[in-house]
Write a structure and sequence with these properties.
Shape: globular
Helix content: 25-40%
Largest sheet: 8 strands, mixed
Order of helices and strands: EEEEEEHEHEHHEHEHEHEHHHHHEEE
Oligomer: single chain
Distance between the termini: 29 Å
């Protein structure tokens, strides 16, 4: 049993439960988890502020040991890294008092695509028979899921047979596969390969209705990273291509496909766009709302839905027994999603972050 000295009672909070906001109530932080017993707890009067689950950014690239603190400062208490050297990310998993990290480790890419120039030979798959040792190596170094970088046919990514082999080997090890797919052709390849998640969203062109129907029917999940796609179209001098990305997300949403909030936040050198850790997640929520999600759906895209689809069963909602990852904000995010930026306090596994 946790000592009462490790309990904090947040009085007069309105809790987001995934559907609406509660009347004013009390939430107990009992050590690292959400509790029910406020006996002897230190009491904090929240004055009617809103309590949200800690945010989950479903697409980042960890830069160094300082990355988690940068994320946590903006209420991101869990982040899913989508390509990082295993030695960099290993000590950042299962942490408290900052942002907890999960990671794909080293990505798997094709021989001639853009990503092959950055990642080197150990990331490159040249034939389907290389899928087994490559997936096994990532599994042995702690990858929580596999990142597969797909390109449209002719753009240098893995061939279809190699992509399918990677998915089969990952699934044989109970690992999910996240596919990078930033173009219409890459989306088709991702669907054909049977990946679990597709990250990014095409700009400039609509997704084919047949692909959308298959994504829905086969229970795929999409992480659009609208923040990155907006910035890329601006960098390339074609901002007029970005509305198609919003339309594509709207079409996926209309089809009932789960959408998760991810930003592609990174501090990598040699790449044109570096969305800021943590801060960009709030912009992503705003872009999801612009794409037709309700404010409630956008909040769930950064809390309960990632926890469900990535099997993070100890977090994602404000429920007794779950990890006390919490964000206290001013303003009503159901009325105005930009209220998520008005952060008063963040807790990571019950530890209050300095602000």
């Amino acid at each position: 049993m946790t000592s009462s000295s490790n309990r904090t009672a947040l009085d007069n909070v309105r809790v987001f439960d995934g559907r609406t906001l509660s009347e004013r109530t009390t939430v107990v932080i009992d050590g690292a988890v959400i509790g029910t017993d406020d006996d002897g707890a230190q009491r904090i009067d929240a004055g009617g502020a809103i309590l949200l689950p800690g945010f989950i950014d479903c697409h980042v690239h960890v830069n160094d040991a300082e990355t988690p603190a940068k994320l946590a400062a903006f209420g991101v208490t869990t982040a899913l890294d989508m390509a990082c050297p295993p030695d960099t990310v290993a000590p950042l998993r299962n942490t408290v008092g900052t942002c907890d990290i999960r990671s794909a480790g080293m990505a798997i890419v094709g021989p001639d695509g853009m990503h092959s120039k950055f990642l080197g030979e150990e990331a490159i798959i040249r034939s389907a028979d290389r899928a087994e040792p490559m997936v096994a190596q990532r599994h042995s170094t702690g990858s929580d899921y596999i990142k597969l970088v797909l390109e449209a046919p002719g753009d240098g990514g893995p061939d279809p047979a190699s992509a399918k082999a990677v998915v089969a080997e990952a699934h044989a090890r109970n690992l999910r596969v996240v596919a990078h797919a930033a173009t219409v052709g890459a989306y088709t390849l991702a669907v054909d390969a049977g990946v679990d998640f597709i990250t990014h969203i095409p700009t400039g062109n609509p997704l084919p209705p047949a692909d959308i129907a298959r994504i829905a029917a086969e229970s795929r999940v999409v992480i659009p990273t609208l923040t990155m796609m907006e910035a890329m179209t601006a960098f390339r001098g074609v901002p007029e291509a970005f509305p198609a990305a919003l339309d594509n997300v709207r079409a996926l949403h209309t089809a009932g496909i789960p959408l998760l909030a991810g930003t592609d936040a990174n501090a990598s050198t040699g790449v044109p766009i570096n969305p800021r850790f943590g801060e960009s997640l709030h912009h992503e929520l705003e872009l999801l709302v612009r794409s037709g999600l309700s404010t409630t759906e956008a909040l769930n895209a950064a809390t309960s839905l990632p926890a469900h689809h990535f099997a993070l069963t100890d977090r994602g909602s404000i429920t007794p027994g779950l990890r006390a990852d919490l964000v206290l904000i001013e303003g009503d995010p159901l009325a105005d999603i930009t209220a998520t930026r008005s952060i008063r306090q963040v807790w990571s596994a019950g530890v209050a972050l300095e602000r």
